[in-house]
Amino acid sequence: AQACHHDNFDNWDSKHNPWNAVRVGPQKNIVRLWQEAARARGLYFGVTEHLGATFNWFAVNKGCDKTGRYAGVPYDGNDPEYESLYLPNRGETRECWYTANEWWHEHWFKRILDLIDQHKPDLLYSDGPLPFNIPGKGLTRPEAGLAIVAHLYNTSIREHGENRAVYNQKDTNPDVFRIGVLDIERGGMQECPDHTWQTDTCVGGWFYNFQHKYKTPKHVIEMLIDIVSKNGNLLLNIPQRPDGSHDEECLYLLDEMAAWIAVNGEGIYGTRPWRVCEEGPTRSNESGAFKESELTWTSKDFRFTSKNGDVYAFIMQWPEDGLVFIRSLANGPNPPAGRVSLLGHNEPLEFTQNEYGLGVRLPERAPSRYMCCLKVEFES
């Protein structure tokens, strides 16, 4: 659930901000409604905060239009009567993602502390590096951010007897991101790192726009497979219309993903990276944020995961001749294969394994519209 964005509006019953969803607008605790819905369905519950950058990002409200009918007319942010919404941020710039203003650091801390205390989330996502720490821009004030992360974890320990909470932020410095889980916005990894990480992306824009072109189910599923094979998780945003509903395109995508997961989820959930994450000629030549181009796969492309000693090999393109050959599963580097099956297909498959790889004959029909998954069980 989005707790607050750069507009300085809190979607919960905030103790430190009168501009919140309980007092203004819907007069509902939107974060609480999401929390209750998640808990009722046995799901983990997460919140995102985009508040850290608000002080300087929102400083444009102190300006005015340069051209047009209202040129020179001060925006409402110039009126001291509305300072609680528009903030005392005159003179702030966006040269750095976060401000150095110490008053804002303390104010941010109080609001996010209140968010955690009221809702006890399992995940907290900060839209940016750890607040307020960007050494490359000369900002080294991580105290408030570190205190919030510690409070998140300690709250989880008090609730569960152990820490089950996760913190996401976007600083790629290992000394920083190891306090939680590194987040890469709309991007991925070329290799499989030894640390867990996360991609956060959206099927379209971050907010509903009927003109926006959505990702196809195939694109989302191929991203999920590639990310999980490289020790990552996918956080996927589904935009809502103003009334809270989803449009037909989103519902279609969700239905397609649900059908695919019902067949292939065993190769995704609860898995860990295998010793090899990928095989084949097709791979992203990009790593980092805002790089998520759809790829053109061949029948020689595979992505791997593992669980309980078994290997799952995702076939990124169904072969026309019904045969796949996977070099990474050769005998020698791997134990002899005892059984090879295709998730969603009830019968074991005919296969051969030698020092060059594993060859498998697939059934005539794929059990899934999108990428299918082989399960390889080795002899003990």
Q: What class would the helix/strand composition place it in?
A: alpha/beta
Number of domains: 2
Q: Please trace the helix and strand order, writing H or E for each element.
A: EHEHHHEEEHEHEEHEHEEEEEEEE
The span between the termini is 45 Å
CATH topology-level fold name of the largest domain: TIM Barrel
For the report, how would you describe the main beta sheet? 7 strands, parallel
Average residue-wise pLDDT: 95
Rg? 24 Å
Spans of at least 5 consecutive residues whose pLDDT stays below 50 are none
The count of β-strands is 17
Number of H/I helices: 8
CATH class of the largest domain: Alpha Beta
Percentage of residues in strands? 15-25%
Helical fraction equals: 10-25%
* Strand order in space, largest sheet: 1-2-3-6-7-8-9
CATH superfamily of the largest domain: Glycosidases
Q: Which overall shape is indicated by the principal axes computed on the Cα atoms? A: elongated
Proper CATH architecture of the largest domain = Alpha-Beta Barrel
The oligomeric state is single chain
Question: What are its keywords?
Answer:
about 375 residues; alpha/beta; TIM Barrel; Immunoglobulin-like; 2 domains; seven-stranded parallel beta sheet
